[in-house]
Structure formats: structure tokens, C-alpha cells
Write a structure and sequence with these properties.
heterodimer, A: 9-stranded mixed β-sheet, two-stranded antiparallel ribbon, 12 helices, B: 5-stranded mixed barrel, 3-stranded antiparallel β-sheet, 9 strands, about 5% helix, about 40% strand
């Protein structure tokens, strides 16, 4: 049975700040700019906004958290906007920005607010992104940090090495995905690598970070913010942009026993649980999707998503991405804005926004012609899977 | 030269807590102790407050043999953590022991070139003292 609230909430306006590598302005100023642009894109006035939601985490360990500089909390946004009609606000702690969008959807369905702005602001700390563990480590890190498992890249690299050897795959095949996404970034003016091509030789000759992940398997940390207006579909139809109708969503975090060390065990569990909910609620399946945005903090996450969301069989995603199949014009275009690898690490909100823009026909030079059904997996499919289906019209 | 040079590495030092003290006490004596559930017999690691199989709270620590296979691994090339810079490239492994299926324990692959790390290779535990209090379980190929 499809979800009774299918198509009742929509994404309307979308806005973003400039995407840079360093903090030329305080992060709060970038978040404010993104929110103002999203509201203006909708054709609303700021005073119309009566709901606010964000996932604020700085996903980089070991840095001092300063609200307004390294994160932008709901409190910080409320302080800047002084909304006279605010009725609902949220800052969630699990399932990343996808959880904020999903909970905002619930609030709109419940009728406790009418126009919600969801934003995500990402800080790029000076120096090393994930600071090394301290000289003495308690908690789950006491079983990993002494061995040089000092950041998330090594845990995810170990998971990917297991994937490759279990499935008899080769890491060189990932070049096709990285190149496809870079081609998409080259069509996306806002993307960090808009002006920089990537060749197969560039990929194959790039330095290794944590085998099997090379430099181009890792996303590009940036400073920037993105925001979107959500409202009920009847109201969205009265606004300026063509709305993207939310057909269904799902969420599931992975059960992790004792921290990251055990998260190598089953890369399919979270993504398949989450997407099964989404397919059931939306009343369709992966074969119906025209364009997919699949989170790529590391490229392996996209491979796991392609399989666990049902676009390819287990062990076959690296074959699925070959021969232009995931490029615009191919069988299933993926990460059509460039993804985190090539557009910048906005931690999932860009994936959701791009899915919405594609079905609204507003994606410009990176538009997939005729896209009606858009999928987004907005966080690592193997860890923290939030999934969405958007449609241009009810079906 | 593919042998990792560990001689100058300053490893982060584990701080035992109420859940993990017995593990580290065992390692100092040269014993690898995993939690065992007295209700269902499940062996688990890292230590947890409840049995990860049957949710019993009746758990104790018992020795395991320390032989198993490489379940996952990575070879680290990035020197972001300067304390490990001299060892790069080095293999960090995650091992599943024969007598504790499903439980996973991390280590480095010592004594052989890092290129020897592969899924399914047989390994056995060895012990590396860090100081008077803490001894790390580590792994070498079981040949």
C-alpha cells in the first residue's frame, strides 16, 4: 500500500551560498545567504517562514565547535531571522540532514507549520579535516586508534577492501564513477570543480590515501551552505517554482556494535531497509527512477547505495557505473550535480535538492531531459541511510 | 622496501574503563580475553554492556585462542596522523577469530610486508607492550 501522504508535501525554493575552500565569511553569513535565496526563489517573504530545521553537526572530529563559525544551529538561525510567526523548529542528532527534511515533512503533514526552511551549513576547518585521536583514548577508540585507525576514512577503506575482494572487483573500475561525476560538475556552475576536468589517467595516477581509496574517491571539503523551502503541495503550487512532490521517504541507521570497528560487517543492511520503506511508500521501485543522487562522502558509499537501494545486484555496482551508464544520457544518471566528490561536501542536502530540481525541470545545463522520478540517498547507504523519491506530478 | 617501520611510531594509548579493564588486564598477561555470554554462549568483542545476541547481562571474560582470518583491512598511505608517519604505508587489519565468529578485533599486520594483507589470510595474535599498564594485541601471519 502506498503512503497516504504521498505527494502531500513538496520542495519549493532552493538557494545556496558560494562554495569555497576556506572561510572568507563566517559560516552563519553563508547559511543566512542560502536561506534568503531559498525563500526568494520560492517567491515568499521571510515573514512567511514559520518552521526551521537543520542538522548542524561538523562532521570533522577534534575541532572546537563555535556556533556561527563551525556550525549554524537552529538557535543561531532564529537569532538572525527574528521570524515573527515561528511555530516549529528542529535540530536533529541522527540520520543527518535527510532526517531534518523528513521530520519537517511530518510537521507539515501534521499542520503545525506551513513553510519550513531546511538548511545545512558546512565548515571546512583550517588544517587537517579529521584531527588525529588524542595521546590517550577511551571509549570505542581504545580498540582502533592504537592501530592507526585514526579517522573514518580507514574504517570505510577496510569495508571497501572487503567489498572488492569478496566480489572479485577491481578498484580501477571506480574511475568511471569519478569521471561521470566530474563531467556533471563541469555542467554545474555552483560546483567546486566546475572548471576542472578529470581524466582516467588523473584517477589512476592519483595518490593513495587509504587503500583502496585514492584521492579522487574522497569528497572535497568546502565551506558553504544550502537551503530549501518545504510546504504542503497545495501551497507549493501557488509559489513561483514548479514544485517537486515528495512521493515517499525512508530512514535507517546501521546497528554498530562497539563503534566503527564492526561496521564493516554488512554494507547492505541500512540502505535496503531504508529504501524498501521508500519504495513501498512511493508505490514504485528502482526501475521507475529517471535520475538518482546517491551520497558519496567516499565513492564506496555510492557503490553500496547503488546495490542496497536496488539499482544493481549485490557485487555488481562497479560494473553498473561503466560505459557512461551513470552519466547524463546514460541508463541511470547518478549525482548529476557532481556529488560530494566533485561539487563539494555539503553532507547530503545537495543530493536532496538536486533530486528535487531534476523533477522540477530546473537543473539547467545538468538537467536530465524529461526526468519525472528522482531518487535521493542523502547519507552513506552503509551507515546512515535516508532515502527519498520525488515526482514532477502525482502518478 | 615494503616492510612498515614501526620503531618510531607513538601509538595512542588505550584508557581502560569498567567495561574494558578485564580485556586490558588479560592482554598485559599475554592472554586474549573476549566477553562470553553465560546465557547463550555468544563470544563478543569489543566489550558491551549486554550480549549482542540474546541481550543477557550475565557476561564474563574468557580466553580465546587468538587464531583467525583477516576480515577486512586497509593500507594507510596518508600521514595526517604524524605519529604514524614513519610506518607509512602500513596495514591495519580487522580480524575474525575462529572461536568467536562475528566478533571483530583490530590490529596491525606485523612481521611481513603490508602487501601480504588480504581478506581470508590466516593470522594469529601476538602481544606488543606499550608501557607497564597496556599491552596491545597485534597480529602476524599464521604460517
Amino acid at each position: 500500500m502506498a503512503w497516504e501522504h504521498r505527494f502531500s508535501v513538496a520542495v519549493s525554493g532552493i538557494g545556496m551560498s558560494a562554495i569555497t575552500r576556506s572561510a572568507e565569511k563566517p559560516l552563519a553569513a553563508l547559511a543566512l545567504e542560502a536561506v534568503q535565496r531559498a525563500v526568494a526563489d520560492s517567491g515568499l517573504q521571510m515573514d512567511d517562514i514559520n518552521g526551521l530545521a537543520t542538522y548542524a553537526e561538523l562532521p570533522a572530529a577534534g575541532h572546537t565547535i563555535i556556533d556561527g563559525l563551525s556550525i549554524v544551529s537552529v538557535n543561531a538561525m532564529m537569532t538572525m531571522l527574528k521570524l515573527p510567526n515561528l511555530r516549529w523548529h528542529l535540530q536533529n542528532e541522527t540520520v543527518n540532514i535527510g532526517g531534518a527534511v523528513q521530520t519537517a515533512t511530518n510537521a507539515l503533514i501534521a499542520g503545525v507549520c506551513d513553510y519550513v526552511v531546511v538548511w545545512r551549513a558546512l565548515h571546512n576547518p583550517t588544517g587537517i579535516y579529521t584531527a588525529p585521536p588524542a595521546s590517550h583514548v577511551g571509549g570505542p577508540q581504545q580498540f582502533t586508534a592504537p592501530y592507526g585507525f585514526s579517522g573514518i576514512v580507514q574504517s570505510l577503506a577496510a569495508e571497501y577492501a572487503r567489498y572488492l575482494e569478496r566480489h572479485g572487483q577491481s578498484r580501477e573500475k571506480m574511475a568511471a564513477l569519478a569521471i561521470a561525476q566530474r563531467k556533471h560538475a563541469n555542467l554545474t556552475p555552483e560546483a567546486y570543480f566546475h572548471d576542472t576536468p578529470l581524466t582516467r589517467d588523473d584517477y589512476l595516477n592519483s595518490r593513495m590515501i587509504a587503500y583502496p581509496f585514492c584521492l579522487f574517491d574522497c569528497d572535497i571539503p568546502v565551506q558553504g551552505a544550502m537551503a530549501m523551502v518545504l510546504t504542503r503541495t497545495d501551497r507549493a503550487r501557488e509559489l513561483r517554482p514548479k514544485p517537486a512532490l515528495l512521493a515517499g521517504y525512508g530512514q535507517r541507521i546501521k546497528v554498530e556494535v562497539g563503534g566503527r570497528i564492526a561496521s564493516v560487517a554488512d554494507y547492505m543492511a541500512a540502505g535496503s531497509s531504508s529504501s524498501n520503506l521508500t519504495w513501498e511508500r512511493a508505490g514504485l521501485g528502482p526501475q521507475d527512477v529517471d535520475v538518482a543522487q546517491i551520497y558519496d562522502g567516499f565513492a564506496g558509499s555510492t557503490i553500496y547505495g547503488i546495490e542496497s537501494y536496488g539499482f544493481a545486484k549485490e557485487g555488481e555496482a562497479l560494473d553498473f557505473v561503466q560505459d557512461g551508464n551513470v552519466e547524463i544520457g546514460g541508463g541511470l544518471p547518478i549525482n548529476t550535480f557532481g556529488g560530494s566528490l566533485s561539487a563539494g561536501r555539503l553532507h547530503g542536502i545537495w543530493h536532496i535538492a538536486e533530486a528535487a530540481m531534476q523533477v522540477s525541470g530546473r537543473a539547467g545545463a545538468h538537467q536530465v531531459p524529461g526526468a519525472k522520478i528522482g531518487f535521493a540517498g542523502a547519507s552513506g547507504a552503509n551507515i546512515n541511510a535516508t532515502t527519498f523519491v520525488f515526482a514532477d506530478e502525482p502518478y | 622496501m615494503t616492510m612498515s617501520n614501526w620503531s618510531a611510531v607513538k601509538r595512542p594509548i588505550p584508557v581502560p574503563n569498567d567495561l574494558t579493564r578485564a580485556f586490558w588486564d588479560g592482554a598485559r598477561r599475554g592472554e586474549l580475553l573476549f566477553q562470553r555470554c553465560h546465557t547463550c554462549g555468544n563470544r563478543q568483542h569489543p566489550p558491551a554492556p549486554t550480549c549482542t545476541n540474546c541481550v543477557s547481562t550475565d557476561l564474563g571474560f574468557e580466553p580465546v585462542e587468538g587464531r583467525g582470518t583477516i576480515y577486512a583491512y586497509t593500507v594507510m598511505f596518508h600521514s595526517g596522523d604524524r605519529r604514524f608517519a614513519d610506518a607509512i604505508p602500513y596495514a591495519s587489519v580487522i580480524v575474525e577469530l575462529d572461536d568467536a565468529p562475528g566478533a571483530l578485533i583490530a590490529g596491525n599486520l606485523l612481521g611481513v610486508p603490508y602487501t601480504e594483507a588480504h581478506i581470508g589470510r590466516r593470522v594469529r595474535v601476538v602481544f606488543e607492550p606499550l608501557n607497564d599498564e597496556i599491552t596491545l594485541p597485534q597480529f602476524e601471519l599464521d604460517q
